[in-house]
Structures are given as structure tokens and as C-alpha cells.
Write a structure and sequence with these properties.
1 helix; about 100 residues; alpha+beta; Double Stranded RNA Binding Domain
């Protein structure tokens, strides 16, 4: 048994994170990409932070995904966490990419 944690970091043009319209477009693109790995993921919470944006997603199987935008440096972090039994296959695998 173990908790699986996957941390992804991306660089992006800071202007694409600076206003609400651009931020929503980036968020939509991230949601579409996550859906290909975690099809039952649903949006649960978001907030504007002092340094950017925070969003949280969950599914019924216990997967928790947090998304952070750091506007000034143009960084996006995506943290995926879930519990996995030793006999289970990973819910997310990046081995083929």
C-alpha cells in the first residue's frame, strides 16, 4: 500500500496567466489533458491567490489534483495524489511519454 504522488511543472508565458480570460483558457486546456488520464475527475474548488491561482479537483476513487499558477515566473504546477494497493496498477503512468 502506498500513496502515489506525481508532481508536474510547466513554464508558460506569464501573460497567459495574468488575466481571467487567459487563465480560464489555460485551466480548460489542463482539464482536457487531465481527463485523458483521469476521466472521472471533477472540479471542486478554486481561488485567486496573491501570487496567482489555485484549483482543486477530485474523483470518487480518492484522486486529488491541485493546480497552481504562479503568474510572475510563468509557472504551472500540477500535483496528483492517490492511494494505491500494492496489487493495483498506477492510475496515472507517464512511462509511454
Amino acid at each position: 500500500m502506498s500513496v502515489q504522488t506525481i508532481l508536474l511543472d510547466f513554464s508558460i508565458d506569464p501573460q497567459r496567466l495574468g488575466d481571467e480570460v487567459s487563465r480560464k483558457e489555460v485551466r480548460k486546456n489542463i482539464e482536457e489533458a487531465l481527463e485523458s488520464y483521469l476521466p472521472n475527475l471533477r472540479f471542486v474548488y478554486d481561488m485567486i491567490t496573491e501570487d496567482g491561482y489555485f484549483g482543486m479537483y477530485m474523483d470518487k476513487a480518492g484522486v486529488v489534483v491541485s493546480v497552481r499558477f504562479f503568474v510572475a515566473p510563468g509557472l504551472i504546477t500540477i500535483n496528483i495524489e492517490y492511494f494505491k494497493e500494492n496489487t493495483e496498477q498506477p492510475k496515472v503512468s507517464l512511462e509511454n511519454y
